[in-house]
Amino acid sequence: MAQSEPNIILHAADVQKQFGGLRALSDVDLQVEEGKTHAIIGPNGAGKSTLLNVIIGRLPPTSGAVIFDGTVLTGKQPHEINQLGISRVFQTPEIFPDLTVLQNVMAPAFARRDGAFKINMLRSVDSETEIRDEALSLLEDIGMTGRLEDNAASLSRGDKRRLELAMCLIQRPRLLLLDEPTAGMSRHDTNTTIDLLKKIKSRGMTKVIIEHDMHVVFSLADKISVLAQGRIIASGLPQEIKEDPRVQEAYLGGSVE
Amino acid sequence: MFSLSRKDLTSLVVLAAIVLTMPIWLAPFGAAYPGLMQKFAIYAIFAVGFNILFGLTGYLSFGHAAFVGIGSYTAVWSFKLLTMDILPAMIFAVIISGLFALVIGYFCLRRTGIYFSILTLAFAQMCYSLAYSVLTPLTNGETGLLLAGNDPRYIDKMFGVTYGSGLPTPTFLGTTLGGYGGFYLTAIVLIVIFFISQKIFASPFGMALRGIKSNQTRMMYTGFNTKPYTLAAFVVSGMIAGLAGALLSVTDPLAGTERMRWTESGNVVLMTILGGVGTLFGPIVGAWLIKYFENIFSAINSNMLNNFFSFLPDGIQSLMVTVTSKFVGEGWHLTLGLMFVLIVVFLPGGLVEGAKRVAARFDRKKPRTGPAPAPQPAE
């Protein structure tokens, strides 16, 4: 089979972001290939979270545009961006603390099935067996079947992060954005999460991941971009990044691992 | 479509039994007369509807009495212009208050938290002032909108229905609604509204509303457009408030501005919080408690207290009467206020939460659930 042209699913084109006198992002040009895991690394304050917020529509870029599969995301509402097939895991887990664990995972599935707004009052949540089963199998994957009826507020921070991941995965997004998905997790939980993320790689989901933990980055990423002082200073395969002297200087502090 | 889970079906049957047997079990409390029981049912309807907005989405409206007033006026106008039958009156009241809720909700829901509450209060006060001044031709201002013998009643005329001399009384499909007839009508409407509230609570729609209360950011990034959801909840609760207003006019065919006063809007908030925000039964319990206090507790006078404490020696009797008389009669607000403070501080989930805790203590096999979070307006 001939190597086909890689399909760019997400393109941040010449994005600038200015906060008053501070230039958080300058001339950022990021291309993410479909089906790949693209990691963005960089020291604190490099603009990683700002970039993610621009992509998801939380912050408008000062100039430039973000294009997802031919659609310009700039100026769209968060729910519209999600309905296009983009889900996001936040740095501080955004879950529904007052709902049960099971409901937390079921709710996003309704957004996927019924769209951004639908008054479906006639059937009960409990009678939606298809969505329920899907949620249950996902919760089994993240090992939380024992806590289905607990309020999500009672979970540990690590469990909240995994729950949020399940909430994104049940939407079967085309693009999954992960903002430090393993921060605050034990080594064991981190490895479980890596395994889970590897498993969903085979489903053909594109992932953009921001991460501090080099262990996580090098076990997951197909491609890495390094952000420093609001600029992308290098972009390439993990091996190239490891060996790039500029990267070592800016971020890795001279040596890797 | 009409199916309920086993648990919800049990609740519905229990509620129906409690409501329909009111004339029996309210008798020992001295409240078993139709006029008061109607009020119990009507204000329970109002509170159940209010809870769909406040309990599920967390948006605290301080202006829901406006919809009660609008429903009342609409119903009386339906009696004056169309027919004395209550069905058109109720249907029009629901439609008109729903339209008002759509417009008012559209503007108020552009803000959240305290700003939303203030906006609803402002709109309600506007409705109240308009009813008093500019809209006097429609509302008859201070006197209130009354029926008159010479009202046109076009539909009744078409069918040749006449009411003889004197003021006509509302009818239901040709039957006059007497005291108990009026009570059973409101009781059945309450059961129907409770059923609708159960359907909403259990549905994906209800879950989305709870999601908005719990974490609006996550809702948006999960692909829900939260604005139409909150607007739908606002309109539904406004329509139910309108229906409650219509029932007030059905059981007593007049409408006055006092139904739109801000204290009425505040009362429904108290009812919901007292009973338990976001629970199915809470608003009903709260509504009954407040209406009971307002009508029965406020009527206790020092004579009755003297009789009650007559078994005590003279000195202590007069002391007890002096102390307790501050809490009853005119002072019923004091009792209610103290109760409200105690419940908000010690039982943030309201009386229903308290009942659950008591039940959990008796039934130790069940795992204890944590206390419900205090009611909070949406972010």
Automatic annotation (TrEMBL), chain A:
GO molecular function, one term: ATP binding
Source organism, top-level taxon: Bacteria
Taxonomic lineage: Bacteria, Pseudomonadati, Pseudomonadota, Alphaproteobacteria, Hyphomicrobiales
SMART domains: AAA
Keywords: ATP-binding, Nucleotide-binding, Transport
UniProt protein name: ABC transporter ATP-binding protein
Any single Pfam family the record assigns to this protein: BCA_ABC_TP_C
Domain ABC transporter: start-end pairs: 10-254
PROSITE patterns xrefs: ABC_TRANSPORTER_2
Automatic annotation (TrEMBL), chain B:
Protein name: Branched-chain amino acid ABC transporter permease
Coiled-coil regions listed in the entry: none
Location in the cell: Cell membrane
Highest taxon of the lineage: Bacteria
Residues annotated as transmembrane: 12-33, 40-66, 86-107, 114-135, 183-209, 229-248, 268-293, 331-352
Membrane topology summary: Multi-pass membrane protein
One Pfam family recorded for the sequence: BPD_transp_2
Membrane listed as a keyword: yes
UniProt KW Nucleotide-binding keyword: no
Gene source species: Aquamicrobium zhengzhouense
Alphabetized PANTHER family for the sequence: ABC TRANSPORTER ATP-BINDING PROTEIN, HIGH-AFFINITY BRANCHED-CHAIN AMINO ACID TRANSPORT SYSTEM PERMEASE
Keywords per UniProt: Cell membrane, Membrane, Transmembrane, Transmembrane helix
InterPro entries the UniProt entry points to: ABC_transp_permease, LivM-like
